[in-house]
């Protein structure tokens, strides 16, 4: 069973991390069953957020009797000290615990630090002194914010999108965390569903002994797939390497990671899904995406106002209006 030491925290966790965003979509009893099965089979790290509706409540229901055996990270998107304290209080209550192992700023558009106008970092350190949190983390989709967080020396962990589709910029973040002894938590390790071979994804992540991938799980079959890697971890065989290279070739260049920072759209376009519809049609069951619901969503692209707000907010510098138009044209051909 592979493990990861989370940088300067010293926390040792299973290489499989449980991303608890998807469990908000399943009934409470089913979610508790999945969480407890994961724990019973060696997974001891669970990542949630105040913004994931009832995800924290389900974690609390699953683990209130086994708190000492798990590592929990959660997040606050608060941008004021008052909001921060309110979020922390609610998270502790929902999780049925008196401390959070890793408390993370949830994708802020700046890197909180001592002396800035927000007071957020001071609130975080105060919570640590009070014993309500153990370690301080930050999550981001923005390369500049992530880079600043690493350089600042203020953070114990960084959570950032990372998969075998990552580019040089993401790899520099991973290396920076290694050099600074910062735990690196890889969100979107399946690139938002574009990577469909979990064995290849796991084998790639295994090459980075300080990187902890969190897999978004909402079905028992998904959980079983990752649990099987505890005893039989996939390796970078010639076959898997060939699969990775094929995926990189197909997905190279400008593709939407689905991070959602372009949202909301004034025309009501679901950009983070519509801008990668061509890939979703080719890499996942088509029936869902060719439904009347998604046909209506794709038709909204015709109403694009070309305000370019989405393009200005994209952390990857994509020309999103152009990307939307390409996907719209391809979708119409697929429907024909």
Descriptive tags:
15 helices; 2 domains; TIM Barrel; 8-stranded parallel barrel; alpha/beta; two-stranded antiparallel ribbon; about 325 residues; about 45% helix
Question: Would you write up a description of this structure?
Answer:
The mean pLDDT is about 95. This protein is an alpha/beta fold and about 325 residues long. Helix 5 packs parallel to helix 6. The strands form two sheets. The chain has an eight-stranded parallel β-barrel, surrounded by four helices. It has a two-stranded antiparallel sheet with strand order 1-2. The longest helix has 16 residues, at about 320-335. It folds into two domains: about 5-245, NADP-dependent oxidoreductase domain (TIM Barrel), CATH 3.20.20.100; about 270-335, no CATH class. It is built from 15 helices and ten strands.
Architecture blueprint of SSEs:
Blueprint: E1 3-5, E2 12-14, E3 17-19, H1 28-40, E4 45-47, H2 55-63, E5 71-76, H3 81-95, E6 100-106, H4 120-129, E7 133-139, H5 143-152, E8 157-161, H6 168-180, E9 183-187, H7 198-205, E10 211-216, H8 220-231, H9 238-251, H10 271-274, H11 277-283, H12 286-289, H13 292-299, H14 309-313, H15 320-335
Parallel strand pairs: 3-4, 3-10, 4-5, 5-6, 6-7, 7-8, 8-9, 9-10
Antiparallel strand pairs: 1-2
């Amino acid at each position: 069973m592979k493990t990861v030491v989370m940088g300067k925290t010293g926390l040792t966790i299973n290489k499989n991390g449980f991303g608890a965003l998807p469990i908000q979509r399943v009934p409470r009893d089913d979610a508790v069953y999945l969480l407890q099965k994961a724990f019973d089979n060696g997974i001891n790290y669970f990542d949630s957020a105040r913004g994931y509706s009832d995800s924290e409540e389900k974690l609390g229901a699953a683990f209130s009797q086994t708190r000492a055996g798990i590592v929990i990270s959660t997040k606050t998107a608060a941008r004021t000290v008052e909001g921060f304290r309110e979020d922390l209080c609610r998270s502790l209550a929902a999780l049925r615990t008196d401390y959070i192992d890793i408390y993370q700023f949830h994708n802020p558009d700046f890197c909180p630090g001592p002396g800035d106008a927000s007071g957020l970092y001071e609130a975080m350190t105060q919570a640590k002194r009070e014993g309500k949190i153990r370690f301080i983390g930050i999550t981001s989709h923005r390369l500049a914010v992530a880079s600043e967080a690493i350089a600042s020396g203020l953070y114990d962990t960084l959570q950032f999108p990372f998969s075998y589709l990552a580019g040089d910029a993401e790899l520099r973040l991973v290396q920076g965390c290694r050099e600074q002894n910062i735990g690196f938590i890889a969100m979107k390790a399946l690139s938002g569903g574009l990577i469909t071979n979990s064995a290849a994804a796991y084998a790639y992540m295994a090459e980075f002994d300080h990187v902890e991938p969190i897999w978004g799980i909402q079905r028992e079959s998904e959980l079983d797939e990752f649990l099987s890697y505890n005893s039989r971890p996939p390796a970078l065989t010639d076959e898997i390497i060939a699969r990775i290279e094929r995926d990189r070739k197909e997905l190279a260049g400008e593709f939407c990671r689905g991070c959602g920072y372009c949202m909301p759209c004034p025309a009501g376009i679901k950009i983070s899904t519509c801008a990668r519809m061509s890939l979703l049609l080719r890499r996942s069951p088509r029936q869902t995406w060719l439904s009347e619901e998604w046909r209506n969503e794709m038709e909204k692209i015709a109403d694009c106002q070309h305000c370019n707000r989405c393009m200005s907010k994209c952390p990857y510098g994509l020309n999103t209006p152009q990307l939307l138009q390409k996907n719209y044209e391809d979708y119409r051909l697929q429907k024909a």
